[in-house]
Amino acid sequence: LLPTMASSSASAAAARTYIESTSGKYPALADSLNALLDLYDKKLWHQLTLETETLLAEPAFTSCPSDVQIDLYQSFIKDFAYKLSSLKLAQITAVLSQQHAQTEPRSAIAFLQSVIALLQESKEPPVALAAPILYLRMQIASLHLRAGDERKCKELVEAGQAQLAAMEDVDASVHAAVHHVASLYHKVKQNFAEFYSSSMSYLSYVTTDALPDDACLGLAVDLSLAALLGEGVYGIAELINHPVLRYLHNTPSAWLVDMVQVFQEGDLHAYDALCTKHAAALNAQPLLVSHASKLREKITVMCLMSLLFSLPADSRCVSLSVIAERTKLDTAGVEGLLMKGLS
Predict the structure, then answer these.
(1) Buried-state track 3-42, b at ≥16 Cβ within 10 A, e below 16
(2) From CA 197, how far away is CA 145, in angstroms rounded?
(3) How far is 159 from 163, CA to CA, in rounded Å?
(4) Is residue 245 within 8 Å of residue 239, measured between CB atoms?
C-alpha cells in the first residue's frame, strides 16, 4: 500500500517497544499483543490482520481509554499498513476511532481524515482507493452527525450515494456503510420513508447475526415505526419477512409486530382492536401520538387497497356502501378516500 513506509529495523524496534510497554500497562491484553508481535516478526501479514481484528473486538481492548486504541494504529499498525488491503485498513481504523468518537467526534474525524490522506499518498490507482475512501468518508459523515453538523453529514451522504451508484463490484461493507449513515441522518431528521428505505437497503448488505442484539432491537423498533409513519410506504412485506423483527419478540415492543402486520393486511378493524389493547404502549410513543390522524388515514387507504386486491382482477367493481362498511367511513368520507387513493 505505502512503499515509502517500508519497515526498517528502527520501526520494528519501535513496534516491539510499544507492544512491551502497552502489555505492561494493560496485563489483560498481554497475550493478544504478544501474539500480534510474534506474527509481525514472522511477517505473516494476513494472519496479523486477522489477529488484529480479533483484538479490536475483545472487551479488554474496547474498554481501554480511547488514546490506547489510537496509539495501536499510530505506534504499531501504521508500520505495516502498506501490507494491508486498503479496504481492510479503512475498516480497522474505523473501529479504532469508535470509542474516541463517543467523547471527541472532531478528533475522530481528524484521525480518519489522516488515514484518507495516507491512502491518497499511496501508489495504488484511484479506482482501487475509491471504495476504502468512500467507506471512511461515511464514517466521517456519521461523526459529523454525532457532532451536530447535519448539513455536513447530508453533504457527504449525498455525495457518497452518487459515487456508489457509479461504482461496480463494490464490497458489501461499503454498500452497508453508505446506507447505514443515510439511515442515521434520516432518523435524526424524522424522514420516515427515507429512513425505512435506507435501513432496508442496509439490511440487504449485513446479517442480523453480525450485529449486536441491542442494535437489532433498536433497528426493529425504528423500522416498525417508520413503516407505520412513512408517507408512501405501503408495501412492507419485506420488513415483515425479515429476521430483524424477531428481536421484538418477548420485549415490551412486541406489539409493534402485530401493528405492522395489521397495516400490511389493511385490516382496519384489527387496527382499532390493537389500539385499544395496546393503548398504554401507543401513548408512550410520541411519534405515534403526534401522527395519530396520519396513521388513521394510512390504515384506511391500506384497507381500501386490501379490499380491491382481494377481488378478482377482472371484476374489481365494489359499491360505496361496501367500502364504507370496511373502512368505517360515511359516503362523503369514502369519496375523499377514493380521491386520496387516486392521487
Answers:
(1) eebeeeeebeeebeebbeebbeebeebbebbebbbebbee
(2) 19
(3) 6
(4) yes
CB-based contacts of 16, cutoff 8 Å, min separation 6: 37
**Is residue 228 very low, low, confident or very high in pLDDT (cuts 50, 70, 90)?**
very high
Residue-wise pLDDT tens digits, 170-193: 999 999 999 999 999 999 999 999
Q: Where are the beta strands (DSSP E) in 99-146?
A: none
Neighbours of 184 (CB within 10 A): 21
Q: Distance between CA 136 and CA 90 in Å, rounded?
A: 6
Share of residues in the chain with pLDDT > 70 (%): 88
Closest CA to 267 of 238, 307, 294, 228: 307
**Furthest C-alpha separation in the chain:** 87
Tell me what pLDDT residue 329 has: 72
C-alpha cell at 169: 463490484
User: What's the pLDDT score for residue 325?
Assistant: 67
Q: Where are the strands (E) in 91-171, listed by range? A: none
| Exposed/middle/buried for residue 266 (C-beta within 10 Å: 0-12, 13-18, 19+) | buried
Query: What is the crossing angle of helices 105-120 and 86-103, to 10°?
Result: 160
Contact indicator for 266, 305 with CB cutoff of 8 Å: yes
Give residue 155's Cα distance to chain centre.
18
Q: What DSSP assignment string belongs to 99-162?
A: HHHHH-HHHHHHHHHHHHHHHHTSSS-HHHHHHHHHHHHHHHHHHHHHTT-HHHHHHHHHHHHH
- Confidence (pTM): 0.87
